[in-house]
Design goal:
The structure is a homodimer. Chain A is built from twelve helices and 13 strands. Chain A is an alpha/beta fold. In chain A, the strands form three sheets. In chain A, strands 3-2-4-1-5 form a five-stranded parallel beta sheet, sandwiched between helices. In chain A, a hairpin with a 2-residue loop joins strand 12 and strand 13. The two termini of chain A are 48 Å apart. Chains A and B meet through helix 1, helix 4, helix 5, strand 6 and strand 7 of A and helix 1, helix 4, helix 5, strand 6 and strand 7 of B.
Chain lengths: 327, 327
Amino acid sequence: MTPATGKISLVGLGPGSLADLTGRARAAIAEADTVIGYVTYIRLIKDLLDGKEVIKKAMTEELDRAIEAYERARAGRKVAIISSGDAGVYGMAGPTFEVLFQAGWTPGSGVEVNIVPGASAINSCASLVGAPLTHDFCAISLSDLLTPWPTIARRLDAAACADFVVALYNPKSGRRTRQIEEAQRIFLRHRAADTPVAVVKAAFRPKQDIQFTTLAKMREAEISMMTTVLIGNSNTYVRDGLMITPRGYANKYEAESGFAAARDGEKAGVSLSTGLTGWLAALHAAHAGGRTPAELARTYRLPEDYVAAVLSEPWAAEADAAADDAE
Amino acid sequence: MTPATGKISLVGLGPGSLADLTGRARAAIAEADTVIGYVTYIRLIKDLLDGKEVIKKAMTEELDRAIEAYERARAGRKVAIISSGDAGVYGMAGPTFEVLFQAGWTPGSGVEVNIVPGASAINSCASLVGAPLTHDFCAISLSDLLTPWPTIARRLDAAACADFVVALYNPKSGRRTRQIEEAQRIFLRHRAADTPVAVVKAAFRPKQDIQFTTLAKMREAEISMMTTVLIGNSNTYVRDGLMITPRGYANKYEAESGFAAARDGEKAGVSLSTGLTGWLAALHAAHAGGRTPAELARTYRLPEDYVAAVLSEPWAAEADAAADDAE
């Protein structure tokens, strides 16, 4: 195997102020001969660039940047490609690997490539508005330049329907204004009009701005490419200027428990009956009592073939219940 | 307004080694009189704890930790509550705010609360396997202790169907082994058996381990509470030991374009025809040509009421196309 002669580090800066860099990111920038990135990000870390070659690029030159990085690394140099947030999240990591593969690079070919993770916009923006990400969440980019709109629309619909907290990346640009309106329309098919929405601009940077609004009113907020839009799930609330998603689904207990009556010794709001084992017990009991898979699928809002597959398997309630005991 | 007398910082450590701390996280720990966290995380930052009160807690004592933090902060102390990853993602931020609200805290009441973001497990694990998060992604926890299984199952099904890259948090514990099997079953309803899956254990810590597998074979991998499971979307591939999700949907172009034939001047693989404006044009043209909303909904795999709502609006193709030009 050829010894490594050069190195490319894909460095996530986090939200962008120097205080948000990790030690690993600082070290990768410090050891780099060449630092490549958008003008904005280069400016954010300008105090760390003394004596280095600096290559500033515009938004449309991403693949060029990857090629320049590879050329230098093959000549034995150490190159840091910087991204805001996390380099892997809609960032340079994907396009860079694609360019490297096309150029014949392999991990053993003499150029080391590593990725330095950072807090993505969803994390940084969430930290400024409270605790919206306590429950399952999605990130969806509204940029339809490389992604067909039906794909984006399906994801919006699926995320809204399945009650994910959602962060919209690239929500709107000067010319691309209707995507956010379509996103709102799709969400309103599933979520209440008063669902909390936070619009966070330039998190942890000088122009930081936070707007709280609702799903019904979000079009009145100032939304741009500099913002991330956080949409709460059906349990998210705003109190004292903080957007909170509670961890438990206590207030959903009745609706979700379906045929599973609480058993002796269960605490209210704790989902022993509606966790997997409890749900399996309830499902098999209801089926034995004459409910069809189609009816049960409607009750639990799950696909009928999934419910039927689960019901087709032998059911040993005692064993599963015992296994759950110690958790 | 009462001046702040104490402070609670909810600090995300990132994956866990000291090199992964941000400057902001280090500063929050440095200024704290008291540091509270799980035994494991306290151990990770033990070199930063000289002279501080340290409160180690077990997994089940989360609310106790929030209460102890508040008691100390009300007495004027500075408290850091540490979490691995991001404090907001399935972390202490949510439960802490809930406890504080119950205790009568408000943002103006003399105890300042702030959150220091960090890279979550999805980011750290992704950075070690390649670039799986180049496209839209979800995080789903398989812990059904506080969440009803039907809610989790609906999210798994929605994420699998809408082609999100998915990170499964808390995939399996010693006693909770069937949830990951159900997740696999639900994913196999929508994704190919050879969909790439990465199982990452203890990212950036001494016991770090990475396994590549597929959706069909993932049950053979060693999965525990220490691991995060990354499932690729339909375009994700593994090459030379790297899991890559390409940015574009070039290979989906034909399938997604539906009735929208490429127009003169379009580049192949670029979704001008399938971005929102192009899709609207195609949709209206097909409707004018006699296709019903129901047929078009099936073609694009979108809800019929959404397609009907879009079609019910006046359509000015020229204006929208002009607006798209400059992007």
